[in-house]
Design a protein that fits this description.
By secondary structure, the chain is mainly α. Helix content is 92%, strand content 0%. It is rod-shaped and about 180 Å long. The model has no long low-confidence stretch (mean pLDDT 87).
Length: 132
């Protein structure tokens, strides 16, 4: 056994708690290094997640903007449809008026034709006036 080994053995026998504490320090130093590496990895992941959250927030804002635009366009389209329905109703009313006028015109035309036939029938049936 060399002098160093003898001194180490004597030291271990004399101060067992100190040796145990030194060995614990070595183990703890390794664990601290491992925890630091894990902490660095967690920071890196947190930064990545933060970037993803920002991207997602920007995408959500874009979707909200598109949705608001679609709602506005939908409202404009609804207004246009309502105006077109109103115009169609007006046209239907006018067509009904024209149909009623046309029906009245046909009725009057038929009546005139009947009266004309009656006049011509009477003219044909009546004797010619006497000449003086």
């Amino acid at each position: 056994m060399g002098p160093r080994q003898v001194a180490g053995a004597a030291f271990r026998r004399a101060l067992p708690r100190t040796v145990e504490a030194l060995e614990t320090v070595r183990v703890l130093a390794g664990e601290v290094a491992e925890v630091r590496a894990q902490l660095e990895e967690l920071r890196r992941r947190t930064d990545q997640l933060g970037a993803r959250v920002e991207e997602t927030a920007a995408a959500a804002a874009s979707v909200r903007s598109d949705l608001d635009d679609a709602r506005v366009r939908g409202g404009v389209a609804d207004d246009a449809i309502a105006r077109l329905v109103g115009r169609a109703d007006d046209l239907d009313a006018r067509i009904a008026d024209v149909d009623a006028g046309l029906e009245e015109s046909r009725r009057l035309s038929l009546r005139v034709a009947q009266m004309t036939d009656l006049v011509f029938d009477r003219l044909v049936a009546s004797p010619p006036p006497a000449a003086d």
